[in-house]
Specification:
Radius of gyration: 13 Å
Strand content: over 45%
Helix content: under 10%
Largest sheet: 7 strands, mixed
Number of strands: 11
Shape: globular
Order of helices and strands: EEEEEEEEEEE
Length: about 120
């Protein structure tokens, strides 16, 4: 299993941007499809975006399509989520995770995530 750590969250005004990072340990990161999810207080975890092992394929939830961009750098064992035009409803804890299959379901342990707070 690959170990993951998210960073890059923070407080931003509505309309602003943030770039989240997901650092992976181990030599097998490039073998995994990866995804970003978020969970707001009192809500279920929500799928946001997925990227296949090579970066050639991506998939987005309708709620973030056109605003968020997922990318990865296998040479650096890193994945990113560029978030633009942020809205207060984007406030949540954001987590990265490996996916089983394509389009896949989360596999492995969830990390602590990174908090994103969007003020109106």
């Amino acid at each position: 299993q690959v170990q993951l750590k998210e960073s890059g969250g923070g407080l931003v005004q509505a309309g602003g941007s943030l770039r989240l990072s997901c650092a992976a340990s181990g030599r097998t990161f490039s073998k995994y499809h990866m995804g970003w999810f978020r969970q707001a207080p009192g809500e279920e975890r929500e799928f946001l975006a997925a990227i296949n092992w090579s970066g050639a394929l991506t998939d987005y939830a309708d709620s973030v399509k056109g605003r968020f961009t997922i990318s990865r750098d296998n040479a650096k064992n890193m994945m990113y989520l560029q978030m633009n035009s942020l809205k207060p409803e984007d406030t949540a804890v954001y987590s990265c995770i490996a996916l089983a299959g394509w389009p896949g379901t989360p596999t492995g342990d969830w990390g602590q995530g990174t908090q994103v707070t969007v003020s109106s």
